[in-house]
Automatic annotation (TrEMBL):
Family statement: Belongs to the COG1 family.
Organism the protein comes from: Malassezia sympodialis (strain ATCC 42132)
Keywords linked to the UniProt accession: Golgi apparatus, Membrane, Protein transport, Transport
UniProt protein name: Conserved oligomeric Golgi complex subunit 1
Domain of life: Eukaryota
The organism's taxonomic lineage, starting at the top: Eukaryota, Fungi, Dikarya, Basidiomycota, Ustilaginomycotina
InterPro entries: COG1
């Protein structure tokens, strides 16, 4: 046995420093020897220890699997025992104990007294099957009491019976409202259908589906006649159809008989199972008084028995869904009458966009919604086309009225107006050309702007067909072509209108080449008459050649830039000028300059600067200074 270690205090008192150092060295050697022994022991037995640990882990996993298997076997045995007990109870159900007649009458009276409170509680909580239970067995209790020929018992429950009859209307209305709801859940629809099948025996799945689809169509008709905005109504209609389709698929289509038929057969498993579902028991709290539990247990068989009718399972779901979609489409036929009262093009376009978004979400769940979407889109397209055509017709007539008002406004276009004074002023010919400009009269600008504003909404509507727009533009051009301007002022007004229509960016997006050809032909015809009349008017003033050319340039410049062919003002002036040989030489030089592009600026200082597709730098600078000059012809029109 090893000697005990000496006390530290005694060691330091009795031993020297050398002895203490030797003792410490011995302790260190002893500790190292023990460590080497432990390491060798662990190294020799490492494989055995690892094997033992793995065995322990494997045993734990096997124990867990064995425990789960035992639990599964116990559950299966318990379920098998329960099923066997149910089958034996269904086959060998002992006869109910004999109930005294007085106790049976009391039980029926108690049931009829409890039926109205039970029914009200069911309506408050939307427990429609419970409400159908109270209504059904309340009727059977009343029938039992009346057949018993006990006048006193009947008189005691006459008031609850009247109350029950009044509540029956509310129950049926609540069932129909649940079936008509747009966002009802499948469980709520299932409860409502079960309650309807209980109240409208004999049960039939085909009749239940027909009633469900009828109520859904009625709900769609209510949505069509609602006062909400059209976009919201269309979105709700499509969602309503998709939900109806989805509920039908879930309730009637299943692996065996469908959830609705399965729930009905579970509810009506035996003749008394439906009564047992709703009656109060000691283990189940209910709105009925607990003192009435014994009365419910002693309920007569004539009251508690409900014939367990088996619902027919032969339902053609696909054919019924197709008929339902047709019925929904017929319910939506009330929309055209409401669309006829809408005159807002933007609202119709917003409704179409909302319909497309809702249908895109709904078609993923209900493929049958596609036909309904196309049906509504046809209604919207019909209204859009009619509204666009009416708008364009009104715009064309308004344009004609505005143009005729321009002609009749002598203060704006008369010979005594500001434009005539500007043409015939005797200002210095060296005055800058900016003084020669004459802005379009306010009435003329308003006339052209009216057309652009009226057509703008239709132009930016990509869903609207271009045919009515092009027809309206062509009618507008034909209206301008039918004009018969007499005075120079009226002719110049027609030229300005042609230039504005020809260069309008609004009309470029929708007009056809025929429109531009017609406007161009009108401009060429009126421009020739205007140039002839204006040249004759200047010649009649009997001025010298140079002042006459200044007036000629001012008249041409007053028209403003245009990509249309320039009026033959200079040729008409040369033809009408009764000049000498020197004047003819000057006019010939001007004619040559008109044909020489290199001398453009010189000609511009004398005659009007026509803004062609590639104007000179000076014209571009003036166009930037005056935005109204930047209008050019459409690209597909060849000058």
């Amino acid at each position: 046995m090893a000697a005990p270690a000496p006390d530290a205090d005694a060691l330091f008192e009795q031993c020297s420093v050398r002895d203490i150092e030797q003792y410490a060295v011995k302790l260190a050697h002893a500790a190292e020897e023990k460590q080497r022994a432990v390491r060798s022991l662990v190294g020799d037995s490492f494989d055995d220890l690892l094997l033992v640990s793995r065995s322990v882990v494997d045993m734990q996993s096997h124990l867990g699997a064995l425990q789960s298997t035992l639990d599964t076997l116990q559950d299966a045995a318990r379920r098998t025992g329960d099923r066997a007990a149910e089958r034996s109870a269904a086959r060998y159900e002992p006869p109910p104990p004999a109930v005294p007649p007085s106790l049976g009458l009391a039980a029926a009276q108690q049931l009829l007294l409890d039926a109205p409170p039970l029914l009200r509680a069911a309506l408050r909580t939307d427990a429609l099957v419970q409400g159908a239970w109270a209504l059904t067995f309340g009727r059977r209790a009343w029938t039992f009491l009346t057949e018993s020929q006990d006048a006193e018992a009947v008189a005691l429950v006459s008031e609850p019976w009247s109350d029950l009859q009044t509540l029956e209307v509310g129950v049926r209305a609540r069932i129909d409202a649940q079936l008509q709801a747009t966002a009802a859940r499948t469980s709520g629809v299932l409860d409502a259908l079960l309650a309807w099948m209980v109240l409208d025996a004999p049960a039939d799945l085909a009749r239940a589906m027909a009633h469900w689809h009828t109520q859904q169509a009625h709900g769609a008709a209510l949505l069509c006649t609602a006062s909400d905005p059209l976009a919201q109504r269309l979105e709700r209609l499509v969602t309503h159809a998709a939900i109806s389709w989805r509920h039908t698929e879930r309730l009637w289509r299943g692996s065996d008989e469908g959830p609705l038929a399965s729930a009905w057969h579970t509810l009506m498993r035996t003749d008394t199972s439906f009564f047992d579902v709703g009656r109060p028991t000691r283990a189940l709290l209910s709105p009925a008084p607990l003192t009435a539990v014994s009365f419910y247990e002693a309920m007569p068989e004539a009251v508690r028995t409900y014939p367990a009718a088996r619902a027919s399972a032969s339902v053609d779901v696909d054919a019924s869904l197709a008929q339902h979609m047709e019925r929904l489409g017929a319910a939506w036929d009330a929309l055209p009458a409401q669309l006829a009262t809408m005159h807002d093009l933007d609202a119709l376009l917003a409704s179409r966009s909302a319909l497309a978004r809702a249908a895109e979400r709904a078609e993923a769940q209900a493929p049958g919604v596609r036909a309904l979407r196309e049906r509504i889109e046809r209604m919207l397209d019909t209204r859009l086309d009619a509204l666009v055509q009416a708008t364009l017709a009104r715009a064309t007539s308004s344009f004609g009225e505005a143009l005729m008002a321009v002609w009749d406004d002598e203060r704006a276009l008369g010979d005594s107006g500001a434009r005539a004074v500007l043409w015939e002023s005797d200002a210095d010919r060296a005055a800058p050309l900016q003084r020669w400009r004459s802005a379009r009269p306010p009435c003329m600008a308003a006339c052209v702007h009216l057309m652009e504003e009226r057509f703008y909404g239709a132009v930016h509507t990509s869903d609207v067909a271009s045919a009515p727009l092009q027809a309206a533009c062509l009618a507008l051009a034909e209206f301008v072509a039918d004009l018969a301007p007499v005075s120079v002022t009226q002719q110049q007004a027609v030229l300005e209108v042609c230039a504005a229509l020809y260069t309008s960016p609004t009309f470029q997006r929708m007009a056809s080449p025929a429109f531009y050809e017609c406007v161009r032909a009108v401009h060429v015809r009126v421009a020739e008459a205007w140039a002839t009349a204006h040249a004759a008017r200047i010649v009649q003033q009997r001025r010298a050649l140079e002042p006459s050319l200044v007036l000629l340039a001012r008249a041409a410049y007053a028209l403003g830039p245009s990509p249309l062919p320039a009026p033959p003002l200079l040729p008409c002036f040369v033809k009408a000028w009764p000049a000498s040989a020197a004047d003819h030489a000057t006019l010939a030089a001007l004619a040559d300059a008109a044909d020489a592009p290199a001398d453009w600026y010189h000609l511009r200082t004398v005659l009007a600067p026509w803004a062609l597709h590639a104007p000179p730098p000076s014209a571009r600078r003036e166009a930037a200074a005056r935005p109204g000059l930047a209008r050019i012809a459409p690209r597909f029109v060849v000058s």
